[in-house]
Design brief:
It is a single chain. This protein is an all-beta fold. The protein has 2 domains: 10-135, Jelly Rolls (Sandwich), CATH 2.60.120; 138-231, Jelly Rolls. Helices cover 0% and strands 55% of the residues. It has strands spanning 2-5, 11-14, 18-22, 40-48, 53-59, 63-70, 72-77, 82-86, 89-94, 99-104, 112-119, 129-134, 145-149, 157-158, 163-170, 175-179, 185-192, 194-197, 200-203, 207-210, 215-220, 224-231. The strands form 4 sheets. Strands 1-20-17-22-15-13-14 form a 7-stranded mixed β-sheet, with no helix packed on it.
């Protein structure tokens, strides 16, 4: 079964400095039909204007992944990390027992476009942690590239949950398959372009909840990028 979450129906918050679309209920946006999918709690697509950002705030008992699609985001946290996250990079922050951080776009003229992803950890009270890595886009062209996993295999980021996060980039007309093991679920988030997934037409901003499917067939209509969460 595949259920499409149209990007145009996501929650939307428009501020003077932030344009944010919420796949799941978040902050002032609440929809009881869209609170989470399995252990996937948040997918926010944020555009942060130049010279602005999120001031210091706290998180607890959550795995937080930031994927910068364009621009540069400056991160500071209470466990001593300070870093610039550039386009193509992923950051994983384990909030665990508690962490404070800020996220700013220090550019004078360029917006930052990113996805912020929250996943419930398999255990509460973990020690806060931080990890950041640049992934080569060419390594996902026409194939699946593992970005995060429970065992950090293949050089992926470590995430404290039974989930694999993968990405692929397809050229127009290109096809790729993905096999799901029995009793596994998937969420696909289209970050760029248009494609069909098992015959369903989707485009950037759309999400798809997948259950009771053994095989996914993705065929690009335009050049496209897709993130896939393989979930317990």
């Amino acid at each position: 079964m595949i259920t499409i979450r149209p990007g145009q129906e996501r929650g939307h918050v428009q501020l003077s400095w932030l344009d944010s679309h919420h796949t799941f209920s978040f902050g002032s946006y609440y929809d009881p039909r869209h609170v989470h999918f399995r252990e996937l709690r948040v997918i926010n697509e944020d555009i942060i204007k130049a010279g602005t950002g999120f001031g210091t705030h706290g998180h607890q008992d959550m795995e937080i992944i930031t994927y910068v699609m364009s621009g540069e985001l400056t991160h500071r946290d209470s466990i001593g990390n300070q870093a610039a996250i550039t386009a193509g990079e992923l950051q994983r922050m384990t909030a665990g027992t508690g962490i404070q951080h800020s996220e700013y776009n220090l550019s004078s003229d360029q917006a930052v476009h990113l996805l912020q992803i929250w996943i419930f950890p398999e255990q509460q009270g973990l020690e806060p942690g931080y990890e950041q890595k640049q992934f080569s886009v060419t390594e996902r062209e026409g194939k699946w590239q593992l970005l995060a996993s429970r065992d950090s295999r293949e050089g992926s980021l470590l995430i404290h949950q039974d989930v694999d996060l993968l990405a692929t980039r397809l050229s127009s007309g290109e096809t790729i398959n993905y096999s799901l093991l029995p009793n596994r679920f998937a969420w696909l988030q289209v970050t760029e372009g248009k494609l069909t997934i098992n015959g369903h037409s989707v485009e950037a901003g759309d999400g798809l909840a997948v259950s009771q499917e053994s095989e996914l067939v993705l065929q690009a209509v335009t050049d496209t990028e897709v993130l896939l969460f393989d979930l317990a």
